[in-house]
């Protein structure tokens, strides 16, 4: 897990390659933002949290705005249902 600011910095240095908006497994109808690291960096997946360390559970439109705020381009943002 990492905060929006940490994700922004990781994307800036080239550690992250894309982002997925996935259904929450804890809250029905909510979605999470998951960032994905480059394969050379382990291909790890990270849940994005708010500054208090809580996983962001939201609508798909808000999740997309979070991904955009991090710096991902539309082609890097995948949505799964």
Structure notes:
The model has no long low-confidence stretch (mean pLDDT 93). The protein is of the alpha/beta class. It has 2 helices and 5 strands. The protein is globular, with a radius of gyration of 12 Å. The protein has helices spanning 4-12, 60-70, and strands spanning 2-3, 16-23, 31-37, 45-49, 77-79. The chain has one domain (2-72). The protein has a 5-stranded mixed sheet with strand order 1-4-3-2-5, covered by helices on one side.
Which helices and strands occur, and which strands form pairs?
Elements: E1 2-3, H1 4-12, E2 16-23, E3 31-37, E4 45-49, H2 60-70, E5 77-79
Parallel strand pairs: 1-4, 2-5
Antiparallel strand pairs: 2-3, 3-4
Number of continuous helical runs: 2
Broad structural category? alpha/beta
Strand order of the largest sheet: 1-4-3-2-5
The major beta sheet can be summarized as: 5 strands, mixed
């Amino acid at each position: 897990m990492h905060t929006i600011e940490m994700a922004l910095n990781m994307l800036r240095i080239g550690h992250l390659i894309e982002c997925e908006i996935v259904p929450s497994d804890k809250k029905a109808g909510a979605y999470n933002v998951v960032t994905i690291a480059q394969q050379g960096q382990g291909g790890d997946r990270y849940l994005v949290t708010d500054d208090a360390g809580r996983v962001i559970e939201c609508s798909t439109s808000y999740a997309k705005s979070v991904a955009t705020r991090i710096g991902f381009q539309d082609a890097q943002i995948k949505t799964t249902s």
